[in-house]
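> agent: user asked for a holo structure of the chain below bound to nicotinamide-adenine-dinucleotide. Plan: (1) validate sequence alphabet, (2) canonicalize SMILES, (3) run complex prediction with ligand conditioning, (4) return tokens. Step 1... ok. Step 2... ok. Step 3 dispatched.
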Amino acid sequence: MKIGVIGAGAWGTALAQVAATRDRDVLIWAREPEVSASINEARVNAAFLPGIRLSSAIRATSDLAALADRDALLLVTPAQFLRSVLAEVPVGARPIILCAKGIEAGTRMLMSEVAAEAAPDAPIAVLSGPTFAHEVAAGLPTAITLACEDEALGRSLADRLARPGFRPYLSTDVIGAEIGGAVKNVLAIACGVVEGAGLGQNARAALISRGFAEMSRFGLARGARVETLAGLSGLGDLVLTCSSTNSRNFSLGKGLGEGRAAADLLADRRTVAEGAFTAPVLAEAARDVGVEMPIVDAVCALLKGDIKVDTLIDALLARPLKNEGL
Ligand SMILES: NC(=O)c1ccc[n+]([C@@H]2O[C@H](COP(=O)([O-])OP(=O)(O)OC[C@H]3O[C@@H](n4cnc5c(N)ncnc54)[C@H](O)[C@@H]3O)[C@@H](O)[C@H]2O)c1
Ligand SMILES: O=P(O)(O)OC[C@H](O)CO
């Protein structure tokens, strides 16, 4: 199975590196010609994954047509660009593995729903979990969920990607795997706010727990399974991303918590903080299914600049007491 990777940001590059540990022919599409050149000539992705020496088995191209000979495609562009990129790739009936974590603005669609429209003949899998790209590219031990409704295909894709240090766990719950990855990015912004505003470790733990309750309420309303939400792609990734400034989403939140404006923090960013795009569409999607997500609403308000951090925290803490259950 010849692997093609579409998107040469940090995560696409790390996944190409994973595939290249056993495969002598991995092709990655970079939107930026200078990134292709840097990978092919210097064996490094200086723009998006600096400091990692890349395998000589990875070739880069900036021509999407060059992916025509690939047997399976990993889609690793940011979520808001999945549809436009798929429109340019004649995917046909080749399996696609969706790796972006987000919800499409405007349509409120999950990535699998976008892909089902844009590449209707392609079998779909989702790869999602607690996976900082630098650690994966450096070969540090990592476990991840690979979800595919077709169990046999899921197993063959997992076998194709698995390495001693990269361990996919199989699931058939595609929606559940996607919801965990999309929602945790928004909650990571909230945890960053807690850090930036100096609210302490108790508050961070409370936010992870109550954030997980929000993720679970929304996930269950959308048909996700409890074990998926409590697994690597849900709780696992929530804990990772809420714990470290290595997370772009957590860092963005930290800046907000320090009182900086979202527009300034997001201006001229080359790397993506998906939670900033997911937050408003997630809030809408939650209202569609009648689910309360107060932490997500709070992140939306901060991103819009509607409210100051102190006022927001006071409002969250003043909510009526309630039962802990979902
Ligand atoms: N970085 C990680 O550790 C990590 C881990 C797991 C999942 N992810 C997810 O992978 C996805 C990609 O993130 P990343 O970290 O690789 O990106 P990145 O922040 O490293 O790089 C940004 C990417 O966006 C691409 N881009 C910009 N404008 C574009 C356009 N108009 N059309 C298509 N692509 C465009 C750039 O070419 C580049 O590949 C995100 O959904 C992210 O949540 C990231
Ligand atoms: O840097 P972040 O916040 O986009 O997080 C990266 C990955 O999603 C962690 O699993």
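> agent: step 4 complete. Summary for user: The beta strands are 3-6, 26-29, 58-61, 72-75, 96-98, 124-128, 142-148, 166-171. The domain at 3-172 is CATH 3.40.50.720 (Rossmann fold).
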